[in-house]
């Protein structure tokens, strides 16, 4: 069972339109801004290890847009674009290296059917403007992610568990949302570290992730009558939110 999404009331300070973008971890690292700044810009970025994993997760991610590198790993660009258009019927944005000389990626991407191009590295605001240029249908409400008793209202930036409101920091909220949105799949500590602590080495980043997961667990557990958190750890693999 995958997490449910539903329209949630928009907070007064929330983004005018919230878009879920499915992309790769490598492209996420090319964004100059933090996860919090992406959310503030109305972007819910779901990072996958590579293009092949992204395609497998199309149905469960239900993205508004797919963001891919010009040379996706494990699949040809034109095949990826055709698959996304046919399976998900959503636009594909191709990221290109704006600094590369003699770069033919732009022409190749457009010939392959790309809906738009995004020069890298990029900011949250540049990604937001790119999405606006796609002419997507109006969607003023951010989706709520619901996994069992866990309810994450992205627009209002609120979390409840077992009917009890849970106060999280911005970074805790973003990390929980990342894990819950991919349930029941596992998210590795390395992926979380790259997303939330991109400027530190992998070992230090993994330690920071463990500390933050511990804090989130404690807060969610305090909201449960049995003191249990919905976050599971699969030792040596990663984290996931239970869907039962």
UniProtKB/TrEMBL annotation:
One Pfam family matching this protein: Trans_reg_C
Occurrences of domain OmpR/PhoB-type (ranges): 142-243
GO CC field: cytosol; protein-DNA complex
PROSITE patterns referenced in this protein's UniProt entry, alphabetically: OMPR_PHOB (PS51755)
Molecular function GO labels: phosphorelay response regulator activity; transcription cis-regulatory region binding
InterPro entries: CheY-like_superfamily, OmpR/PhoB-type_DNA-bd, Sig_transdc_resp-reg_C-effctor, WalR-like, WH-like_DNA-bd_sf
Gene3D superfamilies: 3.40.50.2300, Winged helix-like DNA-binding domain superfamily/Winged helix DNA-binding domain
Protein name: DNA-binding response OmpR family regulator
